[in-house]
Amino acid sequence: MSVADRSRKKSGGLGETVSVIVQALLLALVIRTFFFQPFSIPSGSMRPTLLEGDYLFVTKWAYGYSRYSFPLSPPLFSGRIWAGQPERGDVVVFKFPPNPSLDYIKRVVGLPGDRIQMRDGVLHINGAPVRRELIGQIDDPDITEMSRPVDVYRETLPNGVSYETLDLSSNSVGDNTREFVVPEGHYFMMGDNRDNSTDSRFTVGFVPEENLVGRANIIFFSIAGGHSPLEIWQWPSEIRLSRLFTWVD
């Protein structure tokens, strides 16, 4: 093989490698923008449904697309295209209205036009109490973040969606609220960890439909103790095997 042939082969090999890398990055960008995006759970506001250290996929097409569907949220257009309405009870990732650079994850409890209020720890929708049943206690700090047993309730929304909530205190600041009337084009979000959640009762406020990023679908990885998934040496003792590849209720 001549020097020129070797040079062309070397150049072609490098070019092919760069091309493959660029194509892979473009494919990953398309998948992340239009189909699935991974998220990690940074706080305990959705316990016991979601725990810190859970990693999940969010379905991007579930509610259509807005500027916040794209990396860096470029102001390409306003509102949503191919919009779909969240169902009551969906667990949703959205941009924090006061600061859209932050991602939040909560459960949709109020749709446009709904009247939402908490009375003595019971969620009321349009004046009617949501069915709430005490199902027991959890005495696992990894789930509750508490050093004592915590009451667990099963809440069932009017459309039949059912999930568990934690009750850390019988008289917390969020147990009794004013009545909120959800504006058109907005949603009311609450965390399942009702006494330890910054949500629409507080600084989050009503969430515009434009701020919706996607619906949480499946937990694909989970590790306890505040460890990173890259700390493979921690897997034997800290990985939560029972949560891997489980659907988000």
TrEMBL record:
<protein>
    <recommendedName>
        <fullName>Signal peptidase I</fullName>
        <ecNumber>3.4.21.89</ecNumber>
    </recommendedName>
</protein>
<dbReference type="InterPro" id="IPR000223">
    <property type="entry name" value="Pept_S26A_signal_pept_1"/>
</dbReference>
<dbReference type="InterPro" id="IPR019757">
    <property type="entry name" value="Pept_S26A_signal_pept_1_Lys-AS"/>
</dbReference>
<dbReference type="InterPro" id="IPR019533">
    <property type="entry name" value="Peptidase_S26"/>
</dbReference>
<keyword id="KW-0645">Protease</keyword>
<dbReference type="Pfam" id="PF10502">
    <property type="entry name" value="Peptidase_S26"/>
</dbReference>
<dbReference type="GO" id="GO:0009003">
    <property type="term" value="F:signal peptidase activity"/>
</dbReference>
<feature type="transmembrane region" description="Helical">
    <location>
        <begin position="12"/>
        <end position="35"/>
    </location>
</feature>
<dbReference type="InterPro" id="IPR036286">
    <property type="entry name" value="LexA/Signal_pep-like_sf"/>
</dbReference>
<keyword id="KW-0812">Transmembrane</keyword>
<keyword id="KW-1133">Transmembrane helix</keyword>
<dbReference type="InterPro" id="IPR019758">
    <property type="entry name" value="Pept_S26A_signal_pept_1_CS"/>
</dbReference>
<keyword id="KW-0378">Hydrolase</keyword>
<keyword id="KW-0472">Membrane</keyword>
<feature type="domain" description="Peptidase S26">
    <location>
        <begin position="16"/>
        <end position="221"/>
    </location>
</feature>
<comment type="similarity">
    <text>Belongs to the peptidase S26 family.</text>
</comment>
